[in-house]
Amino acid sequence: RNEEAKGRLKMTMLAFRRLVFIRVCIDCMNA
Q1: Rounded to an integer, what is the distance from CA 18 to the centroid of its chain?
Q2: Radius of gyration (Cα) for the chain, nearest Å?
Q3: Mean pLDDT by 10 residues, the chain (31 residues)
């Protein structure tokens, strides 16, 4: 159960980081 929670947290962090990266790219293009 603990390993599953760790995996889910890792996936959430990766998805969040990807969203931030995409947003930064969009801001750079708009600037």
Answers
A1: 4
A2: 14
A3: 92 98 94 79
CA dihedral 8, 11, 12, 13 (to 10 degrees): 120
Taking Cα atoms as reference points, which of 26, 30, 29, 5 lies closest to residue 18?
26
Could you tell me the residue ranges of all domains in the chain? 1-31
- Identity of the residue numbered 22: I
Structure tokens at 22: 């995409």
Q: Provide the whole-model pTM.
A: 0.59
**Of 23, 1, 22, 21, nearest to 9 (Cα)?**
1
